[in-house]
Amino acid sequence: MPLSLLASCSTPSSPIAERQITSGVGAAQSPVLSRDGTAVAFAGVAQGYTNPQIWVGRADGSAPPRPLTNDASKNYAPEFSPDGRSLYFTSSREPQGIYRVPSFGGTPELVIPNGYSAKISPDGNTILYGYRGQLVRRALVGGDATPVLPNIANSYAPLWSPDGKNILVTSSTQQQRDPEWWIVPAAGGEARKTSLGADLRLQGFNYIATNAWLQNDWIVFTGRQGETQTVWKVQLGPDGRPAGKAIRATADAEGDFDASSTGGKVVFARTRVDSNIWALPLDATGEHAKASPEPLTSTPARKGQPSAAGTELLYSAETGDRYSLFLKDEGQRKDGNGEKLRDAFFSVLAGDGSRYAYGEGVKEQLNVYLKSQRWWSFWSTTLCESCGMPRQFSPDGQQLLLWLDSPAQQRIDIIDLSSRKITPIVSASKPLMAPNFSADGRWILFVAQVDTQSWQAFVVPVSEHTPGPPEWVPVTTVSNGFFYAFWSAHSDLFYTLSSHQQGGNLRFLDAHRIDGANKHPVGAAMPVYEFDQTLVPGMDPVWNNVAVDGDRIVLELGGINTNIWIK
Predict the structure, then answer these.
(1) Which uninterrupted H or E stretch holds 199?
(2) 176 in a domain, yes or no?
């Protein structure tokens, strides 16, 4: 739908024809269209770089974008020349300033020393840019620059009106820290202060960044309400006040920003956090990662509780207003969700893939069922009622580990699948987290809260013949933050996922060697892998259990992706 039609609506229209036009370019932002709407330029981080570079590509997404800069400096805020043959951009290289580069590639040349964030008028004659904290203007071909708001020291983020007769300018001062917006005649004359910022703040916005000025005086802006940010639009009346309530300008309720418009099209950046199941390949010792994580699923729905057996992967995924179990055979299908089994969340797959256990109800009062994958596929067998979350089959497949996590009771039990007898293993008044069997089935590893803000990993033996509660053997030092602990495929090696007590994400995967007999730690922790900040493990031990399947670790990772979209 053309943007002019969107602008004439007083209520949000149904989202139509939003298309993603970039992928694989990190942290894409600041998109801008050429005047004819056929090309898009943006800033993005290329693989192997930490700083943004300038990219250009086709607006229809029919070919991958290509970088126009390729250096160690920060290159950002692109702007097409009126004829589309060149791109202006801001660079931190020496000398700093606004550079121009041919849009088909070439050597950038400095055109405005110490300038930044260029915006060219609709008629192509005037350029606006920042200089020492003030917005200034000059002829595009050169000449002296003059302040747009001479009496205000801090002005920025200009928007040209569609007819080029006015400029919307943002300002803030030490005395007035909340941004204000002014309309300045392009031909010269007195600036007029609007109530845009004040009125939008009354509508619940705590962050506002104006992005584009459309026909009929619609202003597109990035707005945040609470902690949710996306792209909105509001119509300005003749008096400079919003003519009504702001409405969403893009389809996503969160994650959109940096919109710009040309010729009835809008481009914008969209950030999404995709939750998918990944596998980290390991060497034969289990002490080293062989490669980066490999995706096992590729859909944006929130996921959790993965368990794997060979090529089979069982996990939960959000489906509308509920969660369902999915079984995927990696040997037959590489993409998508796999086969939906039933509406449920708590589940675990047996090591040989022959059956799975699942729970129904709330986690404090789950009824647990056993389901065969081989025969009598229509029926499930009841294992126990109100007995805890199924967490793992024993290595021999004869027992199931149960974890009861409730404010009133913290407990780890084992149920014998033949007799249905439940054997209590561990109970505590403080939280017990993420229990799992050792590779030989003789020990259980778990993380326990030992103080208000402290956690430690322990192992206990699995035996029906030991009188009294089993001894908790500490296998890590006390940590001031939660971490995961889980066995490797070797009974004398386990892993931890932690933040290295630095706060933040659980990015650091370490291996810990322990004595095979008494399970006491042996030597220092060994680094295995460090996850990138843009692809990090989930941090909820109920949702995000970690599974070890032979020579790989299977876990949920949250991927942060920002790409350019068009509508």
Answers:
(1) helix 196-202
(2) no
- Secondary structure string (H, E, C) spanning 89-105: EEECCCCCEEEEEECCC
Q: How far is Cα 137 from Cα 76, in angstroms, rounded to an integer?
A: 20
Cβ partners under 8 Å of residue 547, min gap 6: 306, 307, 308, 486, 553, 554, 555
Task: Give Dmax over CA atoms of the chain in angstroms.
Answer: 92
Q: How many domains does the chain have?
A: 2
Q: For residue 352, which of 305, 304, 312, 306 has the smallest C-alpha distance?
A: 312
Q: How many CA atoms lie within 13 A of 313 on its CB side?
A: 34
- CB count in 10 Å sphere of residue 546: 24
Average pLDDT per block of 10 residues along the chain, 567 residues long: 28 60 86 96 82 94 91 95 97 97 96 98 97 96 95 94 97 82 93 95 96 96 94 94 95 93 94 89 96 88 92 92 91 71 94 95 92 76 94 97 91 96 93 95 96 92 74 94 95 95 87 91 95 84 92 91 91
8 A C-beta contact, residue 327 and residue 321 = no
| Residue 486 structural domain | 276-560
Residue 152 lies in a domain: no
3-state secondary structure of 173: coil
Residue-wise pLDDT tens digits, 485-504: 999 999 999 999 999 977 78
Alpha-carbon distance of 123 to 437, in angstroms, equals: 71
- Long-range contacts at 375-379 (CB < 8 A, ≥ 24 apart): none
Residue at which a domain ends, from 120, 148, 166: 120
Q: Which of 120, 150, 177 is the last residue of a domain?
A: 120
Q: Please say whether the beta carbons of 114 and 96 come within 8 A.
A: yes
458, 464, 469, 472 alpha-carbon torsion, rounded to 10°: -10
Contact (Cβ atoms closer than 8 angstroms) between residue 40 and residue 19: no
Task: Copy the structure tokens of residue 348.
Answer: 């675990």
Neighbours of 13 (CB within 10 A): 13
pLDDT digits (tens, 9 = 90+) for 201-260: 999 999 999 999 999 999 999 999 998 999 999 999 988 899 999 999 999 998 999 999
The CATH number of the domain holding residue 545 is: 2.120.10.30
Both structure tokens of 175 = 């005395």
180: three-class secondary structure by DSSP: strand
d(CA 522, CA 527): 15
The single-letter DSSP state of residue 242 is B
Spatial distance between the Cα atoms of 527 and 169, rounded to a whole number of angstroms: 51
Residue 94 and residue 80 in contact, taking contact as beta carbons nearer than 8 Å: no
> Helix (H, G, I), strand (E, B), or coil: what is residue 398?
coil
Evaluate whether residue 206 is within a structural domain. Answer: no
**HSE-CB of 425 using CA atoms within 13 angstroms:** 29
* Residue 243: inside a domain: no
